[in-house]
Specification:
Layout: E1 14-19, E2 22-25, E3 31-33, E4 36-44, E5 47-53, H1 62-67, H2 72-80, H3 84-101, E6 113-115, E7 121-123, E8 130-136, E9 139-145, E10 149-155, H4 161-167, H5 170-177, H6 182-203, E11 215-216, E12 222-223, E13 232-239, E14 242-249, H7 258-263
Antiparallel strand pairs: 1-2, 3-4, 4-5, 5-9, 6-7, 8-9, 10-14, 11-12, 13-14
Helix pairs in contact: 2-3
């Protein structure tokens, strides 16, 4: 069994207001790691989440240096990107994962990866650890813990009705249309987008989980709740021009098998 090494807590300042179990916060950079700037580390329901900027990878030689410490799998992903920013984001995701694995005495370069039925990456070399990653703009996010987890970071989305209809249920559209300003609507939509994306990734169903088929309420509840839609703990964080959300599947009643953990399907 892998035990996470304890780290000293780092304080951060919350601003804004809580919406159910979703919190808005702003924060300043914590510290630099190789090739990335870690903006925040926090623990949510026993899982660790970090958000980082990949801007340092734009410095001369930084990307090449980063590739030297990453796994072959990650290096191959990086070089497949045509444009520099895509390379920075892919490498930055690997560096952030490496940074998080070091808390468990592990390194990304030693990991063996596999994919679930719907394409979610897993650490086949350490199945007791669940992780998920996301990137948008110049930001990368990673969450890790002993339960299924999903994370999504997204720059503020410009509203398009086609995108609204693709993403939101009828009840959520009513909530959206009731907001007074375009800015409030775009923030609400991006918050809800990242919540649903993180939840779909946590369950392992990804885009096969049609977003308009379920609501996420202000209290952080998923409606309707089914065996394929287990309960989850949600948190949402607002950054400058972006939103990040994490979903962590709650413990099921009764004893869970490894198959339950891998599939995220629980009897509830």
């Amino acid at each position: 069994m892998i035990y996470r090494q304890s780290l000293s807590a780092v304080g951060y300042f919350l601003s804004g207001k809580a919406v159910g179990s979703c919190f808005f916060c702003t924060f300043a950079p914590m510290r630099n790691a190789m090739g990335i700037t870690i903006l925040k580390r926090f623990v949510i329901d026993g899982c660790v989440m970090k958000i980082a900027s990949v801007e340092p990878l734009g410095a001369p030689g930084a990307l090449d240096a980063a590739l030297q410490v990453l796994s072959r799998d990650r290096r191959e992903k990086v070089v497949r990107y045509r444009f520099e920013r895509g390379k920075w984001l892919s490498a930055g995701a690997g560096l952030l994962l490496d940074n998080m694995l070091m808390e468990y005495g592990l390194r990304e370069r030693d990991m063996v990866y596999a994919t679930g039925e719907h394409g979610k990456p897993v650490l086949s070399s350490h199945p007791e650890l669940h992780f998920n990653m996301s990137h948008s703009g110049m930001l990368v996010a990673c969450a890790m813990g002993d339960r299924p987890v999903g994370v999504d970071v997204q720059t503020i989305v410009k509203l398009r009705r086609s995108l609204v209809n693709y993403t939101m249920s009828e009840a959520e559209i009513v909530r959206l249309d009731g907001l007074a300003s375009v800015e409030e609507q775009e923030l609400f939509f991006t918050q809800l987008w990242t919540l649903k994306e993180s939840y779909a990734k946590a369950t392992g169903l990804g885009l096969t989980h049609e977003f308009p088929s379920f609501d996420i309420t202000d209290d952080g509840e998923v409606v309707p709740l089914t065996a394929l839609s287990p309960k989850a703990v949600f948190k949402t964080f607002q950054l400058t021009g972006a939103v990040a959300s994490v979903a962590i599947i709650r413990d099921c009643d009764g004893e869970r098998t490894q198959e339950d953990l891998n599939s995220s399907k629980c009897n509830i």
